[in-house]
Amino acid sequence: MNNIHKTAIIEEGAQLGENITIGAFTIIGKNVKIGSGTKIASHTLIEGKTTIGENNQIFSHSTIGSIPQDLKFDGEDVELIIGNNNKIREYTLFNPGTIGGGSITKIGDNNLFMGYSHVAHDVIIGNNCIFANVATLAGHVEIADNVVIGGLTPIHQFCKIGSNVMVAGGSVVTQDIPPFCLAEGNRAVLRGLNLNGLRRKFENRSDIDAVKKAYKAIFESGNAISDIAKELLENSDNKYVHELANFVINTKRGIPFNRK
Fold this sequence. Notes:
By secondary structure, the chain is an alpha/beta fold. The protein has 4 helices and 27 strands.
């Protein structure tokens, strides 16, 4: 049985699962689908072609699925997909995709979006990420799993953030950040490996040692990073080293590190 406040507006056509809570003065648009167990607080707007999974918690004054902040947008059929078990705090803004970016903004499972965080058009986010207050993702940004973005941190459009990355609060990210790394600064640069994150993620110490060795070879040897990455792919059988090396080889915006 759903618990819907009498002042909420649910437009005809909206699809609601079971055991959903919808607070006062919230508006749910006609093309919205909401999975079972999701709780939506008061004064929230959910519109557009938006699909929200199960057991999400959306706090008050969030705006979910409003049209992209892109001047090229002209009413095309675009979509926002949100997975399960996400916490979306107050005054957050999530936009759907655009035709030029594949038409979909997609968010995975078990993420925390703190107050005033923004997910722009065509953003792809994995699972188990944390976005602190006023983390701001521009269009076409890609975020892998287990990423932490500090507060007041904007990420430039088309940037990619690898898995298990931590970006310090107050940074400005304008280039790609490889997996397992720490980044900080305006403009953000690599500050080493996210060792605390790796200790929580990796079961074997040997994997951490392999990533440490690979990081030093790529970013501290003074040689061309793409050449070193290709050598690591050929000479290492460690899957995490391969993940790091492939990211370096395939970067489009470049990687910000202090060259020796």
